[in-house]
Amino acid sequence: MRVVLGITGSIAAYKGLIFSRELYKRGIKQKVILTYSALKFIKPLSFKSITDADVYTPKDFFNSNLHIEIARWGDVLIVLPASANFISKLANGIADSLLLSVSIAFNKRIIIVPAMHEEMWDNRFLRENIEKLRMHGVEILGPTYGMLSSGEYGMGRMVEIDEVLDYLFRETKKVLLIYGRTEEPIDDVRVITNRSSGRMGYLIHLALENKGIYHDIVVCGNVEFVPKRQYVKIYKTIELLNFIKESITKYDVLIMPVAISDFVVNKKEGKLHRKEGSINLELKPNIDVLAELSKFKNSTIFIGFSLESRENLEVSSANKIKEKNLDYVVANTIESIDSENITGFIMDKNFNKIFEFENLDKFELAKKIVNLI
Ligand SMILES: Cc1cc2nc3c(=O)[nH]c(=O)nc-3n(C[C@H](O)[C@H](O)[C@H](O)COP(=O)(O)O)c2cc1C
To answer: What is the pTM of this model?
Structure first.
């Protein structure tokens, strides 16, 4: 989802900055437009410092066809906070600023989040204009009753940012992407892990981002490829399982190109020393995350990965689907680990190989996987 965020001249303009930051944390691409009045309250530098948004101000207004370009680019236009002035101008087709020109040209979803003093909100012309916008499919969120900037209580307070986020993402598919490699401690400084670089998962993240699909990311272990946005870092398998159990109901799709350690050892406290002589590490089978998750699988689509030698790939993928109740398995051969290319196939839950690939660029496969959603 690509968001065009308009910010108008309200004392609540700083909330536009917080909202923009929240979009950034979720990896949402955004273009921010500040009105002339918004600039009295908040500066472009703030956005440039804490988000990766493209920021536009009134000086960009007559920059060729920018208003059309921005309107075509966005999937949704959110004006937060929206001033009485902006609302009434929009309802009457006025386009005398960059934000209004973009809004008038915007033929997709528009969400308006008003914020103003109660006396302004009560104005009958404004209210007529609000109804007019609503009638034409513009979504109006709030305002609500609460403390206003003056310290008084009344109607006109902007709805909370969390509510806007919930509203915005309510109908979008949400993906949880988990990639990397788990680490199981041997002692307080050493771990058992594997050679997974995180490249496949990182490329799936880029493919999701390109398609504007909402996704949260868990990166396991210290892999080379990490996203340039917020993500959760997890090391141990048990912590990963607990995290997924707690959060899975929030997601429609789980994609797991993660190399989970098959074995754990009894961790020793402190640091093992060479002078202690040879030591035997007893490798015990680790918990099977996907098998555990399959016990309470509901409507979430599970896309698992299977890394095996070529001759075992088909049987082990089919078993994985059966035993772990997966919707898809992306099967790949051992040579694919830590490589730019990948060989294998995607198998669906009816054991059909729906896509076979030989030495395919991992980004091409990432796009195919994202298309399954
Ligand atoms: C201190 C101050 C706070 C303001 N707060 C609001 C507000 O919360 N909501 C609003 O609709 N107008 C508010 N205004 C008035 C708008 O800034 C004014 O109508 C302006 O023309 C809006 O321009 P814009 O819609 O292009 O951003 C405020 C004005 C000042 C001076």
So the answer is: 0.77
